[in-house]
Amino acid sequence: IYKLIKMSQEAKSFSYSPYSHFPVGAALLTEDGDHIFTGCNVENASYGLTICAERIAIFKAVSEGYKRFKAIAISSNLKSIITPCGACRQVLREFGKDWLVYMTKPDCTYIVKTVDELLPLGFGGDDLDEHQQQGQ
Question: Is 85 annotated as a binding-site member?
């Protein structure tokens, strides 16, 4: 876990955050434990087009063929724990409920929660499957 946290801290150094000056990094571990994908937040002058570090790491992994994950670590320069935004929680949920989210401080201390704990009663693909089955 320490390696994952350190990689998320390194990833934040690549942040493009000229507007918020709030760099965030993420490191995503695939379920097989063999691959780590990193991401950083990338801002845009049209603020709605900004993308969070967590989503970039996930999208990179998916673009390389990985869709099952074991854990993600998130880092910022906050003195308190960094937590994923609502949009990121929904994207995390897209890939399962039971994998781990390590929310860190700069000193590498962290709290860990499952995706389900961060987005209780979340909506995912399995809910769509259930809806489609009811319509048949």
Answer: yes
Task: Give the confidence band of 108 by pLDDT, cuts at 50, 70, 90.
Answer: very high
Helix then strand then coil, % of the chain, to nearest 5: 35, 25, 40
Alpha helices per DSSP H over 1-136: 2-11, 53-63, 86-94, 115-118, 125-134
Q: State how many domains the chain has.
A: 1
Spatial CA neighbour of 39 closest among 66, 16, 20, 18:
16
% the chain with pLDDT above 90 = 88
Query: What's the CATH number where 41 sits?
Result: 3.40.140.10
The catalytic residue among 10, 31, 54, 94 is 54
Instruction: Show the domain range for 72.
Output: 1-135
Task: Please report, as a single letter, which amino acid is at residue 41.
Answer: N
- Tell me whether residue 54 is one of the annotated catalytic residues: yes
46 among annotated binding-site residues: yes
Q: Dihedral of CA 116/21/39/125: which sign?
A: positive
Helix (H) or strand (E) holding 74: strand 69-76
